[in-house]
Design a protein that fits this description.
- The complex is a heterodimer of chains A (366) and B (393).
- By secondary structure, chain A is an alpha+beta fold.
- Chain A is built from eleven helices and eleven strands.
- Chain A has a four-stranded mixed beta sheet, covered by helices on one side. Chain A has a three-stranded antiparallel beta sheet with strand order 4-8-7, with no helix packed on it. A two-stranded antiparallel sheet of chain A has the order 2-3.
- In chain A, α7 runs parallel beside α9.
- With 393 residues, chain B is of the alpha+beta class.
- Chain B has eleven helices and eight strands.
- In chain B, the strands form two sheets. A four-stranded mixed beta sheet of chain B has the order 1-4-5-8.
- In chain B, β2 and β3 form a beta hairpin.
- Chain B is globular, with a radius of gyration of 22 Å.
- The chains are: A alpha+beta (366), B alpha+beta (393).
Chain lengths: 366, 393
């Protein structure tokens, strides 16, 4: 297979500039840090992104009221959201839930496109594509069961609840008011999680059996593949900020970035972040083209980018020295996002194991 | 007509007139050069058509598919990869006319006389002296790590022409005929048992001033062009998935289920991902450089290549179980070309140790990346403004 462009088009650069300008203006690190002290998420941030910039329905076709963009543009938005650790439901609602709805052929996707509905897929945020879904049941038409650590659900208007059965998945669309979503103290408060109790909730089945399972898997696969671009954004912020800091911070009468022990670490980080860019852009391009290589590309991107984002964030803390350990410096916001992303949508190890199946490198002889 | 269409038409026209099956190899290669289809990104008159560099891959594929003769690229890696772009960039018209054609056709093989026993990473400290004598230069000194010296007709050579100037300023670049009296090539045996490289002793070797490349004293800048091309050649080739070492190791894994363990599988998958990411990174770099010249970013690719190659070649021995304890042949030989992938696993393990040394050690490359790509402060260079002759050696 040939590899398409791994660079950015002019249109993508323009989109990045618009998103970046908006976020620089509206999402300061201090706003994100305040979330950890109980401040509510600024609802205006998402309204602005959704309505002023029209990002809510980026992936939705124009006939259904969206922008008709591809995974490549979505990836650029995610890079900027990662770079600012912005607390918005773009990945959960406009990527994952949107792909589930589109694959189900549900017209509920129009609510996403208009920015009216924020939608969340009710699975633990750690759920990898291809892994088991939490057991739920339906008793006399009402849902029954709990799901722990769900992302994007606290400010959602509509929930997509997959109920696994023998023949696939029955996918229920449930209004948020029907369920009890209890916020949990999350490692990454810029994407806060909730435990969801679905008991007694009523919804509408929008897909069932094998098509329901396929829709959920498509959402998770797109989520994992494009999460790599968010991780790239996190890694780039950590790298750029650390590089600037070691050039400016002076000890022993000179910039600490002149010490070879630090220079070599930054050279290594540069190589790793460039690798993350290549892997994330490849995954975005393959998702956009719906090419045969999608599963391999997603697994490679997740296996690399989730580890690199954590590593670069950890190095950022260390190379900042004491200031990097403070609440005041934003580095911790990125470490928390990076570590949560490493577990989200399948760990690197999970994706490597998946890759072993995909490329015929089985773990054991049997 | 796009550049690609033009290239395809010219290849087809050429093949219509020059059937490789009925034309002797050298004659066919010379005709291909004269038609501008040797390296299409080179200028007209020097084997090229001034077309975009990325088209070259397809040109080579088209000729290979048509049964075209090959110019022994593996025997003449230094010539094709390093001497040619440097001569093109800095040579006079007469030098380009004289050298590029026989270089490309493989009539003349090239080697590189750069490193010295006392000037490895600090190449600019080199001590081989070239002293002007009328229209000639007289060269004395010792070079090392010279592959293909025993087969080469020509060498790219850097030598000190002005010991009174600072070390980077007193170097001049020459094209050195290897058949000249005073050139003594001795094989240098390495950890694999073979002698892939040579030491070259230069004693009163006379080189015509005609073969000086660029201005006197400008050799350091010219040598950097050569070295950037070398790093690109080593680390920067876009390849298919599971190419090279990872392909060998993956095949081994599939064919020998009896050696599989969880620990080896963990290492294998981590390296598979790294190799694939490196492949994508090198494709992305090539896309960035599509129109331009290799810059210091090539150093980053070479770092990655060396690390993965060494890790994979070590893993491969472990995948071989008891056979990992064997070695092919310790007999001292002088291979004409490097058959890294065709040798056995234990050879590859040993030879790969050179990957992080040759063409710039990984430590130097990290300096290059951190200083020239990232803009971090340069290493203290206490010696850089002193006259070369006053340096401690």
């Amino acid at each position: 297979m040939t590899v398409g462009s791994l660079l950015y088009t002019d249109v993508e650069d323009d989109l990045r500039a618009a998103v970046s300008a908006f976020l620089t203006d509206r999402c300061q690190p201090s706003d994100v840090a305040a979330l950890y002290d109980g401040a509510p998420v600024d609802a205006g941030l998402w309204r602005g992104l959704a309505h002023e910039l029209g990002l809510a329905g980026l992936l939705v076709s124009e006939e259904l009221g969206g922008a008709g963009a591809s995974a490549r543009e979505v990836a650029v938005v995610l890079e900027e959201l990662g770079r600012t650790v912005a607390p918005v439901p773009f990945l959960t609602s406009s990527v994952i839930a949107t792909q589930v709805l589109q694959e189900s052929g549900s017209d509920l996707v129009q609510g996403v496109a208009s920015g009216q509905d924020r939608v969340a897929l009710v699975v633990p945020w750690s759920t990898a594509p291809g892994s088991d879904l939490p057991p739920l049941s339906v008793v006399e038409g009402a849902l029954c069961g709990q799901v722990r650590s769900v992302a994007g659900v606290l400010d959602a208007d509509l929930l997509l609840v997959p109920v696994p059965g023998d023949a696939g998945v029955d996918l229920y669309a449930v209004r948020a008011s029907e369920v009890d979503a209890r916020p949990v103290v999350s490692l990454d408060m810029s994407r806060p999680l909730a435990d969801v109790d679905l008991t007694g909730a009523h919804g509408t089945v929008i897909a069932s059996g094998p098509p329901g399972a396929i829709a959920v898997q498509r959402g998770l696969l797109w989520g994992a593949g494009l999460l790599a671009s968010e991780q790239l954004g996190v890694a780039r912020w950590c790298f750029d900020t650390t590089l600037a800091y070691v050039k400016e911070r002076r000890q022993f009468g000179r910039a600490v970035g002149g010490f070879q022990a630090l220079k070599h670490r930054l050279a290594d980080l540069f190589v790793q972040v460039e690798g993350a860019a290549a892997a994330a852009r490849y995954a975005a391009g393959v998702l956009a083209d719906d090419a045969d290589d999608v599963e391999v590309a997603v697994a490679v991107a997740q296996a690399h980018c989730s580890e690199i984002a954590v590593h670069v964030a950890e190095e950022a803390i260390q190379l900042h020295g004491g200031i990097g350990m403070t609440w005041e410096h934003p580095a911790h916001l990125y470490l928390k996002r990076a570590k949560a992303c490493q577990i989200a949508l399948g760990t690197a190890g999970w994706h490597r194991a998946r890759l072993a199946d995909l490329v015929d490198l089985p773990a054991s002889a049997s | 007509m796009t550049a690609q269409d033009e290239m395809r038409r010219r290849v087809a026209d050429f093949l219509a007139v020059h059937d490789p099956r009925s034309t002797p190899a050298l004659e066919w290669l010379q005709a291909r050069y004269d038609s501008g289809l040797a390296w299409v990104h080179f200028p007209l008159g020097h084997g090229g058509l001034g077309l975009p560099r990325p088209l070259q891959g397809e040109v080579d594929e088209l000729f290979a598919a048509a049964g075209g003769h090959d110019n022994r690229p593996r025997v003449n890696m230094i010539g094709l990869g390093m001497a040619a772009p440097t001569i093109l960039a800095f040579g006079t018209e007469a030098q380009k006319k004289r050298f590029l054609r026989p270089l490309w056709t493989g009539e003349e093989i090239w080697c590189q006389l750069f490193s010295e026993p006392g000037a490895g990473s600090d190449l600019a400290a080199l001590g081989t002296r070239a002293v002007r004598d009328g229209d000639e230069w007289v060269v004395n000194g010792q070079k090392v790590w010279t592959s293909a010296a025993q087969n080469a007709q020509w060498a790219i050579l850097v030598a000190r022409t002005d010991p009174d100037r600072r070390k980077h300023a007193g170097i001049t670049y020459f094209l050195c005929p290897m058949a000249q009296p005073g050139v003594d090539v001795r094989p240098l045996r390495q950890i694999t048992g073979e002698a892939e490289f040579n030491e070259v002793f230069l004693t009163d070797v006379r080189i015509s001033d005609e073969w000086r490349l660029g201005e006197e004293g400008n050799g350091w800048r010219i040598a950097n062009t050569t070295l950037n091309n070398e790093r690109l050649a080593i680390g920067g080739r876009p390849a298919p998935r599971e190419d090279g070492m990872i392909g060998i190791v993956a095949r081994n894994w599939r064919e020998h289920p009896e050696h599989r363990t969880p620990d080896l599988h963990h290492q294998l998958m981590a390296l598979w991902v790294e190799a694939e990411v490196a492949r994508l990174t090198s494709i992305r770099l090539a896309q960035k450089l599509a129109a331009g010249q290799p810059g210091p970013e090539g150093s980053a690719m070479k770092l990655t290549f060396a690390r993965i190659s060494q890790a994979l070649s070590g893993l491969e021995l472990e995948l071989n179980g008891a056979d990992g304890l064997r070695y092919g042949d310790w007999t001292m030989t002088q291979p004409e070309e490097l058959h890294f992938l065709a040798k056995d696993a234990s050879y590859r393990y040993l030879r790969a140790k050179g990957n992080s040394i040759e063409g710039g050690t990984s430590e130097i490359l990290k300096n290059v990346v951190s200083e020239r790509v990232l803009g971090l402060p340069a290493e203290p260079r206490f010696d850089k403004d002193l006259p070369w002759k006053e340096l401690e050696r």
